[in-house]
Amino acid sequence: MKLANFILFLATLVTCQCFSERENNFTTEFLYFTQSETAGHAAVSSYGIWNILSLVKFLTAGNTKIQLQRALFLPKSCLELIYGLKNLSDVILGSNTGNTTVFSRNYMVIDQNVRFNYMDFEEKAKFIGMNIISLDLNERDTAVIVANRIMFDEGQELSLDLPELFKIDEIHPNGITLANINRLQYVWRNKFTSVKVENFYDENNRQIGKVNMMFQIVNAACAQITPLKSQVLELPYGTDGKYAMLLIKPWPKTKVNDVFQKMTTFTYGQILNILNMQPPTVVYVKLPKFKINTNYALNVPLNKMGVFDLFEKKFSEFYGVPRNSLFVPAIVQHVSMEVNEVGLHRDMVQPGKRTVAFYAYRPFLYFVIEKTTDTIVLSGVYSKPTVY
């Protein structure tokens, strides 16, 4: 029995890793187009959007389905997709520890008279954690208030103060409005030992503001990666090794957008392989303290990734319903995370073969990763300094 359970665990892990590669391929492009719409400062959960749109793919047909499949790097097999989504969600969301909590919830708001013809869609939605809110969308003012209230009340259960995510023009009687809500709560493995106000610069070393700069010394994987023209650091959370933050700091005179361009050919997997080959290293770390709460309507970034028909009533195609009768007027996302000095241990540093410095004085990229599957859960760009 133990052997059977172990084999099942390995099979699940392999499936999750295959699906995490699909989601990670989506991540870099999605973050790039989102931050280009937000003047370079952004935090998103590509995992959350990838998850919710993967489920919506079951409902679509024709060119709408093809566009989603290409943009999300999805398999053609429906069975492979549904169980891959479920297994990956169970690993990421179903095993939160006392040190790290990842909360991601999906909502679909539809008119109470809409019936999906795709077989067992409601069961599939529940299977992978989609919450369906059925309302009278002809009464849009009331529907917006009720939908926002439902999400706010459920967020309160996790001490999450949600804004009003939906606006009236994002609700339509023939629409399927989508929302994805994310929150990361964590504790570093090593606490930052000091915080003080320091200058923050752009890629040309011009001062653009000030930040509360945190400092710690830690054993961590750190490398200079020439193809990216960046220094990369993996900073661990907690004690179980399940989650970590990957930080990518471009070299001087290298813009964040330049790194994005290079990541189209130099993949996330290659970055992790290089980090895994690094010798034991002592890293002197300086990182801005910050808190970010984002609320994005993501139609435009997804348009730039090739998803068009889903958002246009005259082009959208859904399985088993007349053409032009359903569409997605909006997909919105909320991300809440805080980067602070709180950690479990202080100065528990073992001697290393080398000592390096990672000082985040300039704009950088960050990725929160689940280590057993190497899945990117949250990602962002820090480029607008504030003293938090």
TrEMBL record:
GO cellular component terms attached to this protein's record: extracellular space
Signal peptide location: 1-18
Annotated Serpin domain residues: 27-385
GO molecular function annotation: serine-type endopeptidase inhibitor activity
Record-annotated membrane-spanning stretches: none
InterPro entries on file: Serpin_dom, Serpin_fam, Serpin_sf, Serpin_sf_1, Serpin_sf_2
Domain of life: Eukaryota
Family label: Belongs to the serpin family.
Protein name: Serpin domain-containing protein
Lineage of the species this protein comes from: Eukaryota, Metazoa, Ecdysozoa, Arthropoda, Hexapoda
